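Example complex used in Figure S2.
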Amino acid sequence: TVGCVALDQYGNLAAGTSTGGMTNKRWGRVGDAPIIGAGTYANNKTCAVSATGHGEYFIRSVVAYDISALMEYKGLSVQKAADEVVMKKLVKIGGEGGVIALDKNGNFAMPFNSAGMYRGFIKSDGSWEVKIYK
Amino acid sequence: NKITLVIHGGAGTITRANMTPEKEKAYRADLERAMKTGYEILRKGGTSMDAVEATIRVMEDSPLFNAGKGAVFTHEGKNEMDAAFMDGKTLAAGSIAGVTTIKNPISAARTVMEKSEHVMLVGKGAEEFAKLKGLEIVDPSYFYTEPRWKGLQKALQEEKMQLDHSDTLKKSGFVKPDISGSSAIDKLIFDEGKKYG
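Predicted assembly (331 residues):
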């Protein structure tokens, strides 16, 4: 699964996710990636989120919207909200994977509870980094 | 505002122990290329939506990632893809699921958001819609990569050992695309075996 979240100079957030899904899937199985609120969500008031991982768990936890909701209703930072969902809520039910989340101020989080996650960021000054492992 | 762009290319059992230097270099290069594609759009005053779409298209076109070319195989030996797009300003959203012929599913998801009254389209209908809106349609064999094919065979074999049932691929009449030779890029694809997406 691949995903991207971005903040432009007009203060607008956007999120996208694209995937081939699960190896050996059948019966029209669909994961979280195309489910708005589960694998993908964006709201200028809070954050933009794209997720990757074991889709069934991400759907049940409404992961992407949950991160946004924690920010909107509890006032959590993007890092705390993303950690709460990925490192606590998902781990409790055995959901493996991670998210990228970016807020309206350019703060972002990239938590994952799996062994690794291909990820990267690029900031307004052009500084960037690509990471793979923990 | 602080223009910022963040990407992911999938999560799973990716460790230094099971990654070769060549594969790591290839992944880092494509992730960088994708990121910088989107950043250039933002830097020139483009929108976050344009940046997200362009960035994801780079990763969909790379055979290294489980999206677009390089997508994993279904039980029946097909590449069946899903994508979603959301605009934080308007809360508009679009998604597609179970498509097999749309070259860049992320563009189809954005098109559903912007050019339909719906949020989610699936299967043949989504493909018809994409074609109608002028998106690039390809033969399903475009998405084939040898490592993902082998990943399916491995999963089927494990399933066969568990369930002791016959070869479903043969029953379904699936014929592997005639793509002779294994390209150099195939050797760079990181095989995680059974991917969850």
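The radius of gyration of chain B is 18 Å. Chain B touches chain A through 89 residues (CB under 8 Å).
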